[in-house]
Amino acid sequence: MDTVEKIVEDFASDIAMSPFSSGTRLRDMIRAIRACKTAAEERAVVRRECAAIRTAISENEPELRHRNMAKLMFIHMLGYPTHFAQMECLKLIAAAGYPEKRVGYLGLMLLLDERQEVLMLVTNSLKQDLNHPNQFIVGLALCALGNICSAEMARDLSPEVERLMRSREVNTKKKAALCSIRIVRKVPDLAENFMALAASLLKEKHHGVLISAIQLCTELCKASKDALEYLRKNCIEGLVRILRDVSNSSYAPEYDVSGIADPFLHIRVLKLMRILGQGDADCSEYMNDILAQVATKTESNKNAGNAILYECVQTIMGIEATSGLRVLAINILGRFLSNRDNNIRYVALNMLMRAIAVDVLAVQRHRTTILECVKDADASIRKRALELVFLLVNDTNVEPLTKELIDYLSIADPDFKGDLTAKICSIVEKFSQEKLWYLDQMIKVLSLAGNHVKDDVCHALIVVLSNASELQGYSVRSLYKALQAYGKQGSLVRVAVWCIGEYGEMLVNNVGMLDGEEPVTVTESGAVDAVEIALNCHSADATTGAMCLVALLKLSSRFPSTSERVKQIVARNKENVVLELQQRSIEFSSIIQRHQSIRSSLLERMPVLDEASYLVKRATATQATISADKLAPTVAPGGLKLPNGVAKPTSAPLADLLDLSSDGAPASTTTSTTTSNGFLQDLLGIGGVSTATTGVPSIASTDILMDLLSIGSSPSQNGTPGQAESKPVHAVPEAIDLLGSLSSTTSVSAETKPTHLVSQDMDLLDGLSSSTSVSGLEKTVHPSITAFQSATLKITFDFKRQPGNPRETTIHATFTNLTSSTYTDFIFQAAVPKFIQLKLDPASGNTVPANGNGSVTQGLNVTNNQQGQKPLAMRIRMSYKVNGEDRLEQGQVSNFPSGL
Amino acid sequence: MINFVLLISRQGKVRLTKWYSPYTQKERTKVIRELSGLILTRGPKLCNFVEWRGYKVVYRRYASLYFCMCIDADDNELEVLEIIHHFVEILDRYFGSVCELDLIFNFHKAYYILDEILIAGELQESSKKNVARLIAAQDSLVEAAKEEASSISNIIAQATK
Fold first, then answer.
1. Where are the transmembrane segments (chain B) (predicted)?
2. Which positions 64-123 of B are in contact with A (Cβ < 8 Å)?
3. Beta sheet of A823-831, edge-to-edge order
4. What is the pLDDT of residue A24?
């Protein structure tokens, strides 16, 4: 009998659904799991339990359902899969009793989320429970709906929730209001249905209802403009009253938090006020007094008070507040910033971010404190402060701020260096007013935190370097010095190696020294040493390795004496496991060994990189806000269309063009040609004027001019004999051969190329249309071009139209020596196709000084008899002596501006 | 809004999770792992806020437990600290000086209490007394159902005598 009783009792306690009270199996399971020593043991226990639960589910035992659900929730929390029990939640919810429903809803919220299809099945049970007479069951349903409902459920059950907001139970009302927040978030269209209800709830006394209703109003304002307008009209008075009541209320033990009555309600009201007052002067004015009262009277010695002040300051910053109120807010900020509590300092920085939009000067006053915060021990504060500093930088304070940040970079936390470096780079790029400063800062950053500098930043630096010809020498020397000291910084190594490869001779010969720069003594093999060390130290990084190999190859051509050594170093990588390095090694070895003849032209200096197009590309890629004007003041807008030259990729990026045209060189050409000309030229000059077809204002529109020109072409033949005679004056007999061969080749090329050339030229004009239109009607100014550029020599052409004769152009050629040795006996020769007449003036000298320190100029007169039909073309040849050794260079110029 | 609530022990064990924004199971595990790494390693004197994936996580340590709430970037961090404290005080009153073990064995109770404080990631009730009252009322509903059931079992027991 006893045993029977025992069994019945056991059974009774089982169905007494107390799975959570002591002595039942939930507790045992938790104990068993906690007793497990290893993860494997725990898995075994969980597996066993899950198996038992599955059996129970398949046997459909309602008595064990709630207990199993409780266990599953625990198992779920440990991270094990429990999806098999989802249907059990639904069954529990559908049960009649409160305890089952309570567990069922908890399980539903824990085990499911809005994306599961199963959730749809619960809609009907929810609907029934929302209509249940028991307020706690309604509460359970509202809570579940508010926490996990999907858009579809929100639509279906929204009427029920609306109805419940009118309930007499405060508990139901507040839950229904919060549930509506979720509904409005899921389906913003429903916002209008709730506006009036939400506003009416603001008249309640119960804090729970008020808090819920205010939050609902906040959400409605975000979801719909109409709701925002409605609430502005209807509840601003109510809000002010609520805030006044709660902030004036005497001690209320129920809502008291460290001496302040209901800080939560304070904060929610202030937040809604911010949204209503934003951009609405009337609303804002209405709040002014109460905001001033809260800002002055709230105690700031406890967290709760500070939380209110924090929200209050944000509201003052957000609305159209009076200046007096703003001063109050800024003062609170100042107090916060000097607080010793890290939490308060953190939120102060946070608020200053927002205050910047309102009052930059007030924030600037705290700059030193903020800068100190960048060096704080707390990562959260550092991060906030750094963002703030970034916003505070302007043209006047950029230099001291950058210096501070870079100084700090050397001692910063390794975790923080990445962020800090990125910000410094961004500041330097954005605010640099001169290239030298930019380069100096970048080299410092690369030295201190080169491993954190992003590739795109390095790339931008190289682009700037390649455009700043006057700073290349200085940069390569600085980078060389930095490389010696900080050889472990990846990005520094890459930039330095690239520069040594490109500008190695500037390093060795101290070319282009700046004032006050300390000279370095680097031998040719020293430069190779530096690259070799970099190659050895960074062999793991394929990109650095590849760049080192290229640099070495370039050095082998710059410094022929090191060629043999470079060959050995390069050859070492012939068996490198990285395919890229192996291939480079093998190919470069063969260039050094077997292609001596073409090596120098193959390894010429990189053409100047197009800064503007790179910046645009980068800006679109990273959405970085780098202002093109600041970084590249010489680049005109529209310069992007300019192709890099068709026939000769090395020539004529836009930066060069503009640099030269700004020199005013074209203007001086006329005088030099007319004064230095012999009498023959005068003759021709007169001839030129006489043949002029009078007053053609624009030459760009070729189609119309074609007819005009064809009329005027016969008289211009008069000048031909004279010009033919003028040639031998400078040209060696060979030039005639050249000319002969040229006429045949160009006639072919003229037929195949025209479209090519024209389209290119059109682009040129497109890009510069602004400058050409300004230049007026009388004479059309053509941009100067880089007619020829090699590693050793650069030739630029400036153009000037003869006012009387549209077909005649005076070209002013400038020769610049790019090497460190002087050229003597310099002779420039040119040959043109038959339809063009050419006359060379004497050159200004026959010695071209080294390192671009001065240049030789020479005038050319060109008459294009088929102007408009065929573009100008020219073959050129330069012979000169370096240290008594003969050199010869030649090339073809086909990038003349159109219309010449 | 509060996107989720986490209770993590000093050892990184999860004691309670409540998600108000949708996260898949995989994401949840990842979030918990990431945040444990971020928060448990922070020193005692540092501020109670961690910036994470464009959100802010406000945390506070009570004995061996870390209470964490993830909020939007423009929410009031100081207030969330008060909400955490509010929750802890209610737990404390309910269990009578709460400890980690209470929350392990009665995890469901902690959830019930949280559901009376937050819905949809927003605050529901600022009065601790009200929450306590509501929980007590619901517990007594369960007790009543239990009584009823055991009285039925008594009748069965009587009948089988």
1. none
2. 76-79, 81-83, 86, 104-109, 111-112, 115, 119-120, 122-123
3. A823-831, A874-882, A885-893
4. 54
Residue with more model confidence, A661 or B17: B17
B25, B79, B102, B104: best mutation site toward chain A, by most A Cβ within 10 Å? B79
| CA distance, residue A353 to nearest chain B CA (Å) | 11
How large a percentage of chain B has pLDDT more than 70? Answer: 99
Enter the tokens of residue A334: 């100042």
pLDDT tens profile A526-556? 888 888 888 888 877 888 889 999 999 888 8
Contact (CB<8Å) B126/A255: yes
B25 CB within 8 Å of a chain A CB: yes
Report pLDDT digits (tens) over A598-620.
887 888 888 888 777 877 777 77
Element housing A858 (H / E): strand A856-864
Residues with Cβ < 8 Å from A668, sequence gap 6 or more? A812
Q: Are B129 and A254 within 8 A, CB to CB?
A: yes
In this structure, the number of other CB atoms found within 10 A of the CB of residue A27 comes to 16
Between CA A475 and CA A118 the distance in angstroms is: 67
For residue A624, what are the CA distances in angstroms to A138, A425, A636?
52, 12, 20
- Nearest by CB: A98 against B82, B112, B142: B142
pLDDT value at position A678?
39
Q: Tell me whether residues A311 and B156 touch, CB distance under 8 A.
A: no
Say if CB A836 and CB A862 are below 8 A apart.
yes
Q: Count of alpha carbons within 13 Å of A279, Cβ hemisphere only?
A: 3
Quote the mean pLDDT of chain A: 77
Distance CA B15, CA B99 (A): 12
Lowest model confidence (mean pLDDT) among A11-25, A697-711, A823-837: A697-711
- Shortest CB distance from B149 goes to which of A17, A27, A254? A17
Q: How far apart are CA A49 and CA A75, in angstroms?
A: 9
Candidates A81, A207, A342; nearest CB to B46? A342
What φ, ψ does residue A181 adopt, rounded to 5°?
-60, -50
The single-letter code of the amino acid at A863 is: T
pLDDT at A771: 37
Interface test with B, best of A10, A346, A373 (most B CBs within 10 A): A346
- Give the number of beta-carbon pairs within 8 Å between A and B: 188
Residue pLDDT, tens place only, A565-574: 888 888 888 8
User: Would you call B157 and A350 a contact, using CB atoms and an 8 Å cutoff?
Assistant: no
Q: What percent of chain A has pLDDT over 90?
A: 18
Put simply, the answer to whether B48 touches A179 (Cβ < 8 Å) is: no
**Full-model pTM:** 0.66
Cα separation, A289 vs A300, in Å, equals 19
pLDDT band at B138 (very low <50, low <70, confident <90, very high): very high
CB A897 within 8 A of CB A783: yes
Q: Which helix (H) or strand (E) holds B7?
A: strand B2-9
Residue B136 CB burial class (10 angstroms; 0-12, 13-18, ≥19) = exposed
Model confidence at A769: pLDDT above 80: no
In sequence order, what are the residues at sequence separation of 6 or more whose Cβ sits closer than 8 angstroms to the Cβ of residue A400?
A: none
Cα of A40 vs its chain's centroid, Å: 48
Alpha carbon distance A642, A762 (integer Å): 9
Listed by start position, the domains of chain B span 2-159
- CATH classification code of B2-159: 3.30.450.60
pLDDT, average across residues A727-736: 40
**Minimum mean pLDDT among A205-219, A454-468, A798-812: which range?**
A798-812
ipTM: 0.94
Closest residue of chain B to A176, computed from CA coordinates: B119
Do the strands A823-831 and A836-843 form a parallel or antiparallel pair, or are they unpaired?
unpaired
Asked if B123's CB is within 8 angstroms of A211's CB, the reply is yes
